[in-house]
């Protein structure tokens, strides 16, 4: 049996908004556009109504004329847009609503019902898509004297919060990030016969170091380099550190450095990241490559803690 993946759940909270009271008469917002044919020359340009209030929140209508990729057929796309929700506040609004295009001749309006969560990354509701040829049909009554009338009615709107138990993983990014750079000068490089450990590098409130393997087990014939989170075994099991790091072996003659830049999550189970085959040992020994000069190698590193990952 296929596994069913549930979507994150939201719980309505009555700090703002509500629904229409029983028996309450409310008129839907009506938006009339005269000279509608002008829009046909502005494909994919958004046209926006003024703001209107409904159920304690502020909204507007937006429409675009879009062309289908398959057959180049043009359609009108109408959306309800939430003015107040913002990615900065993390607010979420659940709304039940109706979008309409009025039949000005027969009273047989076309409409669509929607129920959506409006939030910082999705402030648009359901797309109400109607082919332009249907709107332009004189018998439809949707376009009369080059005039269209659109409508929206919000029946219910409530502030919501996310049920955090339904979230498997949460990435919390830092608002301010400070790259920490480190230069490691290693003399008598070819005489090294064991792993070397750099000085402690402090970045993002954590301590790090670099492990370097110069043609030694378990990485013979290669230079291997890793970034290591100090005491990672003692790190909380459900927390990870999200890090942007780079490792660079400096070409001291030609300026053609060997560099990798990676983003990884460091944790108690994965506290070391890097490359076991960073560079072939014969390339380091090659005088023309410039990695070894006066028996000295230079390693440059950059560490930036971007945020933390919590696992539920």
Helix content: under 10%
Order of secondary-structure elements: EEEEEEEEEHEEEEEEEEEEHE
Proportion in β-strands:
over 45%
State Rg: 30 Å
- What's the architecture of the largest domain, going by CATH? Sandwich
> Judging from the principal axes of the Cα atoms, what is the shape?
elongated
How does this model look, in words?
By secondary structure, the protein is mainly β. The protein folds into two domains: 10-164, Apoptosis, Tumor Necrosis Factor Receptor Associated Protein 2, Chain A (Sandwich), CATH 2.60.210; 171-311, Apoptosis, Tumor Necrosis Factor Receptor Associated Protein 2, Chain A (Sandwich), CATH 2.60.210. The protein is built from two helices and 20 strands. The chain has helices spanning 132-136, 281-285, and strands at 10-19, 29-34, 47-48, 52-54, 57-67, 74-82, 92-101, 110-118, 128-131, 147-162, 169-173, 180-187, 196-197, 201-203, 206-214, 222-229, 239-249, 258-266, 272-280, 296-311. The strands form four sheets. Strands 1, 2, 7, 8 and 10 form a five-stranded antiparallel beta sheet that branches. The longest helix has 5 residues, at 132-136. The radius of gyration is 30 Å and the shape is elongated. The two termini are 25 Å apart. Mean pLDDT is 85; it is low at 1-7 and 21-25.
